[in-house]
Write a structure and sequence with these properties.
It comes from Brachionus calyciflorus. By secondary structure, the protein is α/β, with parallel strands linked by helices. The protein has helices at residues 2-13, 20-36, 38-49, 53-79, 88-91, 117-128, 142-155, 168-176, 188-200, 223-235, 252-270, 286-293, 346-354, 369-378, 413-419, 446-449, and strands spanning 82-84, 95-102, 105-109, 132-136, 161-163, 181-185, 205-208, 214-217, 247-250, 301-303, 307-308, 313-314, 317-319, 337-342, 361-365, 383-386, 400-401, 407-408, 410-411, 421-428. Helices cover 42% and strands 18% of the residues. Helix 14 links the parallel strand 15 (361-365) and strand 16. It binds nicotinamide-adenine-dinucleotide.
Length: 451
């Protein structure tokens, strides 16, 4: 690990990575990698998660490519020193700038649920900012990890970017090295380990974690559209999505009213048999399969509930009349189980959300801007979706990241450049006009102090 980091450090010291030409060439190389190897990448994602090709294309490959296109369009402007105006009295003598400087060698630790997107999108940000990087894909999606290890060196000089594969021992060794930035995606327990290791070297971190993302459904919502968007966002990748709706808050009446719409949507999405459908992923491994199954209380299941360990299959499952004490509410579900908790009104929903950890995402379905404003002004979350779920991940113009337990820092678009750069304050003046600032020099006096 030490040799790898030293190699990258030497490459960074050549200053090659700082030019716009180098940066844009690396982004184009990643785009080319995705274009020339799409079939192999789709196969790897299928082996790891039985990910349907459409989900792999829409929620992994296209997101990376759109990010590259957006970044290439704006990179020249983003990385130029930004002129900022000081206060009026200082303008005649001083010019001020924010200079975006690459940090050096970054470590990117990815998670298994979107193993391509969660490694390559941060890598795009790191390279666009002029850094070198070590990429550590998750060992729980080994096929995608192997493909990344094989392909990346074919497209990007391995003196500048290295893939290190392995599990806890390898990551622990990596974390002993001094990096200039660590970008981690995964659970909060390991996030704390990463932060502790980073503290030793005073290395800045971004922690992209998760948590229980709530949804409030108001009685004014269009329940068919709500059911459709919810079911898509919750059951894509079999619920293994960090910003997937985790649980629903609504009144008892809304709970009853949405059920037929949910059943209709499941039928439309997956036909008679979800298990036979090509549009439904599988749970990543047996440990997670057992964990998710253990969260389901069959007496509260109104749709789904079936499972098959041999295929790591758990059907899209809806549970009604769940209470905060139920197991399913004790941890992030990260699987295809959607519990409903009933509340009497939206204030109760707001209080419930505020009594728990700050979520990664919060979604509200309603047809009334007063309700939207109420949630916007009285709750917090990494992101907030009104009448839609998940799609915020594709908008490069807004930051992606958590708050509190759901994470530290953010990325995407210009926010990736801010994350992977040092924003250096630059002040420029000439030798002219020094007499104007006579009052700062000793000997000090009351009249100078009051100037
Ligand atoms: P994981 O098991 O793949 O772990 C993430 C990374 O941490 C892996 O690369 C792994 O090798 C490394 N790791 C594991 N144990 C470690 C240790 N002891 N020391 C050092 N490194 C270690 O993924 P996970 O944690 O199961 O991911 C699921 C969680 O991640 C969920 O909470 C989910 O919400 C969250 N997540 C967040 C985002 C986001 O963008 N905010 C995206 C995806 C997942």
């Amino acid at each position: 690990m030490e040799v790898i980091v030293n190699t990258l450090r030497k490459s960074f010291a050549t200053n090659l990575t700082k030019s716009y030409e180098w940066r844009s060439a690396q982004l184009l190389a990643i785009e080319k990698l995705l274009d020339e190897n799409q079939t192999e990448l789709l196969d790897a994602l299928k082996q790891d998660l039985n990910k349907p090709n459409q989900e792999s294309i829409v929620l992994e490959i296209s997101l990376i490519k759109n990010g590259i296109v957006h970044c290439l369009k704006n990179l020249k402007t983003w990385v130029q020193p930004q002129k900022v105006n000081p206060i009026f009295q200082a303008r005649a003598v001083y010019s001020t700038y924010i200079q975006y400087q690459p940090l050096g060698v970054c470590l990117i630790i990815g998670a298994w649920n979107y193993p391509l997107m969660l490694t390559l999108v941060p890598l795009v940000g790191a390279l666009a900012s002029g850094n070198c990087a070590v990429v550590k894909p998750s060992e729980l999606s080994p096929n995608t990890a192997k493909v990344l290890e094989k392909l990346l060196p074919k497209y990007i000089d391995s003196d500048f970017v290295r893939v290190v594969n392995g599990g806890v021992p390898e990551t622990t060794k990596l974390l002993e090295q001094k990096f200039d930035h660590i970008f981690y995606t995964g659970n909060g327990t390991v996030g704390r380990i990463v932060m502790q290791a980073a503290a030793k070297h005073m290395t800045p971190v971004v922690l992209e974690c998760g948590g229980k993302s709530p949804v409030y459904i108001d009685e004014t919502a269009d329940l068919l559209v709500t059911a459709k968007r919810l079911a898509w966002g919750k059951f894509a990748n079999a619920g293994q999505t960090c910003i997937a709706p985790d649980y629903i808050l609504c009144t008892k009446e809304t709970q009853e009213k949405i059920l037929p719409f949910l059943k209709q949507v499941f039928e439309e999405f997956y036909g008679d048999s979800v298990k036979k459908s090509d549009s439904y992923a599988r749970i990543v491994n047996e440990r997670h399969f057992d964990r998710i199954l253990n969260l389901i209380d069959q007496s509260k299941v109104v749709v789904g509930g079936e499972s098959d360990k041999s295929q790591k299959f758990i059907a899209p499952t809806v549970m009604f009349n769940v209470t905060p004490e139920d197991k399913v509410m004790s941890e992030e579900i990260f699987g295809p189980v959607l519990p409903f908790i009933t509340v009497n009104n939206r204030q109760e929903a707001i209080d419930f959300i505020n009594s728990r950890d700050k979520p990664l995402a919060l979604y509200v379905f309603a047809n009334d801007d007063k309700i939207y404003e109420d949630f916007q002004n009285n709750t917090t979350s990494g992101s907030f979706g009104y009448n839609d779920v998940l799609v915020q991940v594709g908008f490069e113009c807004v930051p992606f990241g958590g708050v509190g337990e759901s994470g530290i820092g953010n990325y995407h678009g210009k926010f990736s450049i801010d994350t992977f750069s040092h924003q250096r304050a630059v002040l420029k003046t000439s030798f002219f006009g020094d007499s104007l600032s006579y009052f700062r020099y000793p000997p000090y006096s009351e009249s100078k102090t009051n100037k």
